[in-house]
């Protein structure tokens, strides 16, 4: 492999904070697999459905009335960038899931634009996941998943579905959009679970 | 990031199919739009590459790479017409 | 070229930087000597690959700025401040360095003499690069196809190939229009503002002349131009487009 003189790529940093194979970026790259949807807030709903007794939906107004949390986390994208100390605000999934008793072990997040991603339900509980609608103190802009996106910072960022509209709870696991095309089913950045079989 | 078009796939597709594929004709299974690969709407900023129909945004092709191994899915594309080599 | 030679996976090759030329404060042209260059068609591009000492690799596409018959293979690169590859190519790469690439690739956004014309070449920012290859090729083969060129740039200083374009405009067959979108000198007699159907109709051909049109540049620029041309009655089948990503010019 011929090394390109003078090219260092984007530098990796502190290995205690930055998972293997990642570099730190200061900007916030936009990742997309399709056109940006612009849903109307007056018809927007967040729904938990599937393996539940009765599906539950929150309108935008209902959602805004829920208890909020503000928090700062690092995010790690499978395309190798890591962004440190990102401040978000939104509603913990513990709050939302409390309204929907279920035994289901799996969830598929679904979004405007048709995107899906699968996550074990346990990874969405106990303060590990949120539905966020603010980034850096401002409403989340559509390019980055606004009006609201899922945020599961301990997994690769493709699991943090943009433009989220709900969770489909399931008794059996079902791969989502990228998972179906060879990406890892779980996606732990610290174990470099990028692809199927890693 | 603004989407690109199928011209941006010329290199990887040429590598995989050993010929230029940007002039490959296709018919969209969803809206019937016909065109060539160069005209598809291509998103390359995600973990993989997604090519959509310029008529209706249906996914025509997905391409993912894993350490030099490619996985390609053309399920949204009816009647791909291979260009002559 | 032989069929057997074509049906082969693309391989990465190495070119040696012969010279770099400053086009504008943010844009450089890189001339490469490539052993056994198979030749290319005007409008094609290459994929450039950079490798860091730790093995990290990244690649980007760059259009070929030179004509098929030119001595060297030239690329023209615009520096994006927060970019990964373009700042390296513009600021760091210098004469004698080796650059890895594969190509030429792309069989759609190309102009061969037998395609005829009249030609309308519409370029925004670095979108002029493949169009310059077409213009140079047109001259090299002594083509009699009439050409109209419409260039969009932020300012006169940021317009690439300025002198070459002015020189070509002296040719009876070639007509060059320039629009400046952000700032223009007070003496500026060309167009101002972003392209729109009115400008496309003034600078281009009447739809009835069945022009063959090539549009290249930032994605948003290409969308606006292509939609404008179709609105003017241009046959969509004779408009070829290439998008570089990014927003307007
Ligand atoms: C077929 C093809 C031919 C191309 N030919 C040329 C050429 O001849 N000359 C040339 O200079 N470029 C050309 N490009 C664009 C080039 O491939 C790179 O995208 C560009 O140089 C940016 O790379 P980077 O690594 O510096 O920036 P990146 O690190 O990839 O991106 C940095 C930031 O810039 C944004 N961005 C990415 N691309 C663009 C863009 N084109 N305009 C504005 N913002 C952008 C990104 O969203 C990101 O925020 C071509 C692209 C394609 C698909
Ligand atoms: Zn379609």
TrEMBL record, chain B:
It holds the Pfam family DUF6510. It comes from the Bacteria. This is Uncharacterized protein. It comes from Kribbella capetownensis.
UniProtKB/TrEMBL annotation, chain C:
Its cofactor is FAD. GO terms for molecular function: 2 iron, 2 sulfur cluster binding; oxidoreductase activity. Keywords: 2Fe-2S, Iron, Iron-sulfur, Metal-binding. Signal peptide: none annotated. Residues 10-111 form the FAD-binding FR-type domain. The keyword Cell inner membrane does not apply. Pfam families: FAD_binding_6, NAD_binding_1. This is Oxidoreductase. It comes from Kribbella capetownensis.
């Amino acid at each position: 492999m011929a090394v390109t003189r003078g090219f260092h790529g984007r530098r990796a940093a502190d290995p205690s904070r930055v998972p293997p194979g990642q570099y730190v970026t200061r900007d916030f790259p936009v990742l997309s697999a399709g056109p940006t949807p612009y849903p109307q807030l007056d018809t927007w709903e967040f729904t938990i459905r599937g393996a539940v007794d009765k599906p539950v939906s929150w309108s935008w107004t209902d959602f805004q009335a829920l208890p909020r949390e503000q928090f700062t986390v690092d995010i790690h994208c499978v395309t190798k960038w890591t962004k440190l100390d990102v401040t978000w605000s939104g509603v913990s999934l513990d709050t939302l899931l409390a309204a929907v008793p279920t035994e289901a072990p799996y969830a598929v997040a679904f979004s405007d634009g048709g995107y899906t991603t699968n996550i074990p339900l346990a990874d969405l509980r106990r303060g590990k996941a949120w539905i966020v609608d603010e980034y850096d103190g401002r409403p989340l802009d559509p390019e980055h998943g606004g009006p609201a996106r899922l945020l599961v910072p301990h997994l690769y960022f493709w699991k943090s579905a943009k433009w989220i509209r709900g969770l489909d709870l399931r008794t059996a696991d079902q791969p989502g959009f990228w998972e179906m095309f060879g990406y890892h089913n779980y996606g732990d950045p610290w174990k470099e679970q990028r692809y199927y079989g890693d | 990031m603004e989407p690109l078009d199928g011209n941006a796939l010329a290199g990887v597709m040429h590598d995989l199919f050993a010929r230029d594929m940007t002039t490959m004709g296709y018919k969209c299974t969803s809206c019937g739009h016909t065109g060539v690969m160069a005209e598809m709407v291509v998103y390359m900023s995600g973990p993989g590459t997604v090519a959509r129909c310029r008529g209706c945004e249906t996914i025509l092709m997905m391409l993912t790479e894993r350490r030099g191994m490619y996985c390609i899915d053309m399920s949204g594309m009816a009647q791909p017409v291979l260009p002559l080599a | 070229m032989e069929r057997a030679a074509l049906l082969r996976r693309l391989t990465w090759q190495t070119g040696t930087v012969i010279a770099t030329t400053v086009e504008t404060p943010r844009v450089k042209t890189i001339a490469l000597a490539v052993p056994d260059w198979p030749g290319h068609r005007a409008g094609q591009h290459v994929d450039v690959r950079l490798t860091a000492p730790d093995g990290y690799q990244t690649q980007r596409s760059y259009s070929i700025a030179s004509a098929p018959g030119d001595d060297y293979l030239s690329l023209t690169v615009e520096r994006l401040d927060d970019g990964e590859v373009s700042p390296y190519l513009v600021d760091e790469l210098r004469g004698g360095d080796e650059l890895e690439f594969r190509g030429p690739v792309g069989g759609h956004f190309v102009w061969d003499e037998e395609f005829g014309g009249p030609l309308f070449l519409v370029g925004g920012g670095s979108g002029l690069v493949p169009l310059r290859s077409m213009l140079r090729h047109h001259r090299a083969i002594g083509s009699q196809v009439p050409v109209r060129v419409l260039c969009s740039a932020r300012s006169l200083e940021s317009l690439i190939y300025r002198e070459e374009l002015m020189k070509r405009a002296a040719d009876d067959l070639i007509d060059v229009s320039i629009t400046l979108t952000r700032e223009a000198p007070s003496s500026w007699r060309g167009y101002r503002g972003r392209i729109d159907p009115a400008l496309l109709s003034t600078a281009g051909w009447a739809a009835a002349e069945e022009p063959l049109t090539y549009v290249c540049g930032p994605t948003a620029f290409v969308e606006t131009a292509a939609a404008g041309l179709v609105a003017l009655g241009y046959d969509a089948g004779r408009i070829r487009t290439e998008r570089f990503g990014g927003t307007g010019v």
